[in-house]
């Protein structure tokens, strides 16, 4: 799986396909992340969330992790200054320091993984979080209730997963909700917002104590 091919086109493709809705979802819980002391942005891609966060908190230590060198290049361009660390690593084998970050952000990245890999990704990330960490997650989702919104979301997922699999060799074939895994890692859902008729979901999860 590699997003290198997509990296130079990601921003305009997002604007063409989704307009501003994805960025609104990414920013839905910005206030939570703004008050953190150390933030880990996971699979940040070209850095749209990073740019806003850095502008709001110029001195905040931010670690940006992505497997794609070309995505990281794009992200570096949006924040030439400030204490930002860029890490190129595959989440499936990355072993982060324990209890290091009090905020973790995974925007549109957990939905890239098949169920077995997702578990291998969430466990180390959870161990890298402090005992009172916040975790903000944006992902595509399926509306719970039957109806046109659910049918539309299902069709959109099929299209997206096919397209992403062709270009990036994405391992996931469909969406795996991370809720149970986050819950098992000691996080509780604090706030959930929906966008675009339930196609996109922005969550704030909180950890009250070490799992
Ligand atoms: C769909 S893009 C999302 C980019 C951005 N976070 C956003 O909100 O649009 C998924 C990102 O996760 C990264 N990614 C995918 N699989 C990864 C892995 N196994 N390890 C690290 N990063 C990965 C990709 O390189 C890409 O930048």
Could you give a short description of this structure?
The chain is α/β, with parallel strands linked by helices and 211 residues long.
Describe the structure.
By secondary structure, this protein is an alpha/beta fold. It has a single domain (7-206), classed as Vaccinia Virus protein VP39 (Rossmann fold, 3-Layer(aba) Sandwich), CATH 3.40.50. The chain is built from 8 helices and 7 strands; from the N terminus they run αααβαβαββαβααββ. The chain has helices spanning 10-18, 21-26, 30-34, 48-56, 69-78, 115-128, 148-168, 179-184, and strands spanning 39-42, 62-66, 84-88, 101-107, 129-140, 187-195, 200-207. Strands 3-2-1-4-5-7-6 form a 7-stranded mixed sheet. Strand 2 (62-66), helix 5 and strand 3 (84-88) form a beta-alpha-beta unit. The longest helix has 21 residues, at 148-168. The radius of gyration is 16 Å and the shape is globular. The two termini are 31 Å apart. The model has no long low-confidence stretch (mean pLDDT 94). The site of S-adenosylmethionine (SAM) has 17 residues, from loops.
Set down the secondary structure blueprint.
Elements: H1 10-18, H2 21-26, H3 30-34, E1 39-42, H4 48-56, E2 62-66, H5 69-78, E3 84-88, E4 101-107, H6 115-128, E5 129-140, H7 148-168, H8 179-184, E6 187-195, E7 200-207
Parallel strand pairs: 1-2, 1-4, 2-3, 4-5
Antiparallel strand pairs: 5-7, 6-7
S-adenosylmethionine is lined by residues 1, 3, 26, 43-45, 66-68, 71, 90-92, 107-109, 112.
């Amino acid at each position: 799986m590699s997003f290198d091919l997509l990296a130079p086109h990601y921003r305009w493709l997002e604007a063409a396909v989704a307009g501003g809705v994805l960025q609104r979802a990414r920013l839905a819980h910005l206030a939570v992340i703004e008050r953190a002391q150390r933030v880990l942005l996971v699979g940040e891609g070209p850095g749209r969330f990073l740019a806003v966060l850095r502008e709001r908190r110029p001195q905040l230590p931010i670690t940006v992790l992505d497997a794609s060198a070309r995505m990281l290049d794009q992200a570096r361009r949006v924040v030439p200054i400030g204490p930002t660390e860029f890490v190129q690593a595959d989440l499936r084998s990355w072993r982060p320091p324990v209890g290091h970050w009090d905020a973790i952000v995974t925007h549109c990245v957990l939905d890239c993984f098949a169920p077995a890999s997702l578990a291998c990704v969430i466990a180390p990330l959870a161990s890298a979080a402090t005992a009172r960490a916040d975790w903000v997650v944006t992902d595509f989702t399926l509306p719970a209730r039957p109806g046109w919104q659910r049918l539309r979301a299902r069709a959109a997922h099929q299209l997206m997963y096919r397209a992403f699999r062709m270009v990036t060799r994405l391992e996931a074939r469909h969406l795996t909700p991370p809720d149970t895994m986050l819950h098992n890692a000691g996080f509780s859902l604090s706030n959930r917002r929906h966008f675009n008729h339930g196609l996109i979901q922005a969550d704030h999860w909180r950890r009250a104590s070490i799992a």
